Amino acid sequence: MAWSDARHANRDIFAQRISATGDVQWQADGIPICDLPSSQSWPLMVSDSEGGAILVWGDTRHGNQDSYAQRIDGNGNKVWDPEGIPVCTHPTLQDDLNVIADGKGGVIVVWEDWRNGNQDIYAQRIDSTGNPLWETNGVPVYSGDGDQYDPVLIADGQGGAIFAWWDISTPDWNIFAQRLSADGHQMWNAAEGPVPVCTATGNQGAPVAVSDASGGVFFVWSDYRNDPNFYTTAQLYAQRITAEGHVLWEKDGIPICELPINQQQPYCVHDGSGGFIVVWWDERDIFADIYAQRINENGEALWNDKNAQFQKGGMPVCTGAGVQRLPQIVPTEEPAGTIVYWLDYREDFGDSTEDAIYAQRLDADGKPLWEINGIPVCHAPKEQITPQAVSTRGNAAIVVWSDARGSDYDIYIQRIP
To answer: Which of 77, 215, 296, 363 could make an S-S bridge to 243, C-beta 3.0–4.6 Å?
Structure first.
């Protein structure tokens, strides 16, 4: 795991490796990945397919925020230039990085970029030796009118990637997608522009993406087409697009949840059978709770709560006291099984913030296998925030988070069996 660390006053990037038994593998409190006098922040990390990792972060060593990358081996040794290799150092702002492994031992990075006077989407691919494979400072995924935000991407299995973002070049905010080949060329409707994922009336934003295991992609987003006011009530919609850029489902997408209540923060994984599983929080019971749904390759909802008034409202993951937020999900070894984890405020009272991290395991039918409303991953005093998890053997997950139980924020980790 890697994090942004202020032990030297400015922010640096540190990393640590933990064994399957919970033992620290590298030096206590982590190894520095980049600790230059400038600020480095918000590291992202992918596997290098050889027991190590590639890290990408925002970096202000040249004044404005650029992006740099480093590869480390399983022993924590730096493989590339000791100070990192540049992903993009164009003298304008690069922000909101996102990364994936390219499936060939390298990494593909996407970001928001201001070089054209408005916010566009650019990307770069770096191979396993640290060499940029596309143009210096990246190639445009989209560089049209208006501003584009929140880029997401998945690998296409051939060294390229499929991207999506939300676009405010028109009065309505819409979702668009594009695919770049392994050599960085646009593959979908390059002459006419990117593929419209959703251009319905009203605003759409915050897309997430998951592979359909056939070279294409599922997109899920927050959609305000039925919002009676401005940005008060979103619903979740989804669309499937083939590797060739063809839209397969109903124009502008299908609803994930039929309830006309606020649904937010979707997070998806592939279900291992051609579809996907999505989790979110919504306010059907006033305070935000966690729900999940499984959608097959044809866009049909597979999980129906027979005890609920609305059969297409998803399966409850946590409807406990207080507010639940930031649901995320990892697959288990069991087919279509998952572990969901989230921030939980059931112990938040008065003026103190006592958020905790809880988790629940679901079977292939969406039924909870652990205690109703989840088990605590950590409910130590004070805050636990920004959890991230990976699945591991034995239908388990390992969760890492930032924790305020001490005099400042530290990093803790736990395995959920």
So the answer is: 215
